[in-house]
Amino acid sequence: MPLTATRRVTLGLILLAGVCLLFGDFEISTHAPWQALGRLFMGLIQPDFSRVDFLGEALLRTVAFAFTGVGLGAAAGMLLALLFGHVWVRTFCAFIRAIHELFWALIFLQSFGLHPITGVLAIAIPYAGTFAKVYAEILDECDPQPERTLPRRAGRLSALVYTRISQAWPHLVSYTAYRLECGLRSSAVIGFVGMPTLGFHLAGAFAQGHYATVGALLLLFYALIASLRLWARPRLLPLYLLASPFLLGTGLPIMWSNVARFFTEDIVPAPLRNGEGLGGLLPWLGDLLAHQALPGIWNTLLLTQIAMVLTGALAMTLFPLISHHFTGRHFTGRVRGALGHGVLVVMRSTPEYLLAFILLQLWGPSMLPAVVALALHNGGIIGHLIGRRSNEIQLRQDAPGGMNRYAYEVAPRVYGPFLALLFYRWEIIMRETAILGILGIATLGFHVDSAIQELRFDRAMVLIVITALLNIGVDILARRLRARLRLSHTAQSEP
Amino acid sequence: MTMLALHDAVAAYGEIRVLGPLSLTLTRGERVALVGRSGAGKSTLLSVMYDRWRDQGAALMPQDLGLVATLSVFHNVYMGRLDRHPWWRNLLTLVRPRPGDVAEIGALLTRLGLDDRLWTPCGELSGGQRQRVAVARVVHQGGGMLLADEPVSALDGPLSEVTLTALTDAYPTAVLAMHDVELALRYCTRVIGIRDGAIAIDQPSQRLAATDLLPLY
User: Fold this and answer.
1) Residues 6+ apart with CB under 8 A from A68
2) What is the band of A1 on the pLDDT scale with cuts at 50, 70, 90?
3) Nearest CB to B79: which of A150, A152, A155?
4) pLDDT (0 to 100) of residue A490
5) A79 Cα to chain B: minimum distance (Å)
């Protein structure tokens, strides 16, 4: 049987992941990993909601940072989307979205300090880059005919609003709503580096061993995301957007001298700052590359490859949980489907960083927590989308059941869209892999974080730029693969 | 400008030439029916004319209508005059239409039998209703000449006559692609028959009867 291109790519990726496994470090180093997991589980079923003021503030700040950041990002993204035809705008957007919000947060923490603007910009900047790309794709997919029939001298703005934006409006709204959910996750995660959001309190509770408080925080976070559709009504959104900048808290005042020093001195490579010129710069760069960048890149690629294959395996295993071809359409089937939805919602609502943080506490530092965290979160997202896609398939009445139905009827039909989604998430998995280094796994983020701890911001900036270039490279590779395998990819299919 | 002319116009999809070379001259006040079987090149010819004459104020009603499904009937009709108002007024109209515009467009829609649909999104209308919204838009737009591709194909009986009357009242100069030969002869002053991308018949309509056009089909 000849191998199709799709099979060759799939087998190649799996084989590569297998090779990567040989080089990776996967061990559980804590003494009683299951006991810790048990305590966390007990915390989840016996949460402690007694510290209401503190829980309330964590939630309020998480929501406020998400709304302000995503709101600013969406506004800037729309402006950039209108200029997306220019190659330098596209490049700029690719660059700012290739840098993870936690890296942005680390950068601004060194300049603006613990002021709310640090958290807002950390979310708004990378989100603006993503919004610009997706908004531009959505606007491009509009029917061009209405614009063609307009009177010749209709103004550009009027024409744009009446034809393209009006047509795209439902897609723009649903994508923005989806990103708002992502924004809540990002907002929770920037707490881990010191913003007053959920992650901050979660890290504190873990450090003190208050598992009941950890349980309460996690449950509240799930409730917040699950109820998003109930309280984030389109009519109320302007109100939320206006109110949220005032609910960010005060933080610490900005030291403008710090800001100026950071951008004009701290991030300038040391040899240039000391007047050694190009002669000093090259050895400095070589040293950075050999001892930090290359090992970091190696580990990032290794971990990304393993996590991606595991994500795919998990998604293809789990999507039947919400596919009515497998759960059945009658009452019991609907109950089973709802349970399956619950599992996938929890998986995809938990940010990778948060999952990895928890698993690291339980299992000790190695690549294992990172891989499991990445696979659980991304597998949940892709499984959800593929399950929904499979529900659109009409099977013939006499289609086989069980495993045969999976292998012959459903899986072959969803495999193309599945690969397209997996390739789309490739860049996201890599960006997250790099960032998980902050938790102590030796990917690029680890070296960035160490450089920042040593106050060598020049090194940190170079490493962040290298990370961004790596992400852009993977994105280009994924797009090539999608084109070669002729996998359709539209903005609407993006999660 | 009293004459509109095409000289040796051609159109091709890739390698395949679908129209021309073809030349024709229109006089102001002439209403031309383009007839011919489907695939003969009528839509392509209209499209070529629009590209050539849009700067001189030609209005276009394409076969797929070019409506924005997410906007209301009122806004789709209003779009015909986006060029007459400043941008801020157009934006304001999206949120809060002015009573004067509503009255004017309402009257036009009443004439076309759509007055109860003023605020319905176009995506929720039937094919015939959508076609009349597109007619209302070009009537509202006004201008030197109309280029319309099958403007009444989804309408029948009296409705198609009311609609054609509205169009021809608003535009003394027009080129209409039509498949209903009998309507074409009644509403147009000149008939151009297209076959295989070339002009096969070009006569004033009073000299023609429906049977004269049969060889085209």
Assistant:
1) A120, A123, A124, A241, A244, A245, A248
2) low
3) A150
4) 44
5) 17
**Which residue in B59, B83, B137 is closest to A154 by CB distance?**
B83
Which 3 state secondary structure label does DSSP give A435?
helix
Distance CA B86, CA B98 (A): 14
Task: Domain ranges for chain A, please list them.
Answer: 49-266, 281-495
* Cβ within 8 Å, pair B66-A149: yes
Q: ipTM for the complex?
A: 0.75
DSSP at A25: -
Q: Where are the alpha helices (DSSP H) in A244-366?
A: 256-261, 270-273, 277-288, 294-318, 324-327, 331-349, 352-363
CB–CB of A442/A299 below 8 Å?
A: yes
**Exposure string (b/e) for A220-246, b if CB count within 10 Å is 16 or more?**
bbbebbeebeeebeeeebeebbeebee
B61, B147 in Cβ contact below 8 A? yes
Give the model confidence (pLDDT) of A327-338 as tens digits.
887 788 888 888
Measuring CA to CA, how many Å separate B207 from each of B32, B185, B201, B210?
14, 10, 12, 10
DSSP bridge pairs for B203: B191
Q: What's the fold here for domain A49-266?
A: MetI-like fold (1.10.3720)
Considering only CA atoms, which of B5, B44, B46, B78 is closest in space to residue B146?
B46
Residue of higher predicted confidence among A400 and B123? B123
Please give, rounded to a whole number of angstroms, the shortest distance from the CA of B183 to a CA of chain A: 25
Q: Chain B: which residues have CB within 8 Å of chain A?
A: 54-55, 57, 59-62, 64-71, 75, 79-87, 90-91, 94, 137-138, 141, 143
Is the domain spanning A281-495 CATH 1.10.3720.10? The answer is: yes
**Which residue carries 């070589």 as its tokens?**
A286
Reported pTM? 0.82
Span B56-82, average pLDDT: 89
- Dihedral through CA A169, CA A172, CA A178, CA A183, nearest 10? -120
Q: How many CB atoms lie within 10 A of CB A317?
A: 12
Q: Report the pLDDT value the prediction gives residue A110, as an integer from 0 to 100.
A: 87
Report the alpha-carbon angle A472-A477-A483, nearest 5: 125
Give the span between the Cα atoms of A343 and A226, in whole angstroms: 12
Question: What contacts A478, CB < 8 A, 6 or more positions away?
Answer: A423, A424, A426, A427
Same fold, A49-266 and A281-495: yes
Asked if A157 is an interface residue toward chain B (Cβ–Cβ < 8 A), one would say yes
Q: What is the mean pLDDT of residues A291-305?
A: 91
Task: Give the integer Cα–Cα distance in Å for B165 and A384.
Answer: 54
Domain ranges of chain B: 1-57+144-217, 69-142
pLDDT digits 0-9 by tens, A225-268: 888 888 888 888 889 999 999 888 887 888 888 888 888 878 88
Q: Which CATH superfamily is domain B1-57+144-217 in?
A: P-loop containing nucleotide triphosphate hydrolases (3.40.50.300)
Give contacts of B71 with chain A, Cβ < 8 Å: 162, 166
Looking at chain A, which residue has its C-alpha nearest residue B53?
A152
pLDDT of residue A457 exceeding 50: yes
d(CA B155, CA A364): 73
Task: Give the tokens for residue B168.
Answer: 């021809």
Q: Are A128 and A77 in contact (CB under 8 A)?
A: yes
Q: Specify the pLDDT at position A394.
A: 83
For B188, the token pair is 């147009």
Task: Check whether A53 has a pLDDT greater than 50.
Answer: yes
Candidates A156, A162, A167, A171, partner chain B, best to mutate (most B CBs within 10 A): A162
Backbone angles phi, psi at A440, to 5 degrees: 115, 5
Q: What is the pLDDT of residue A52?
A: 65
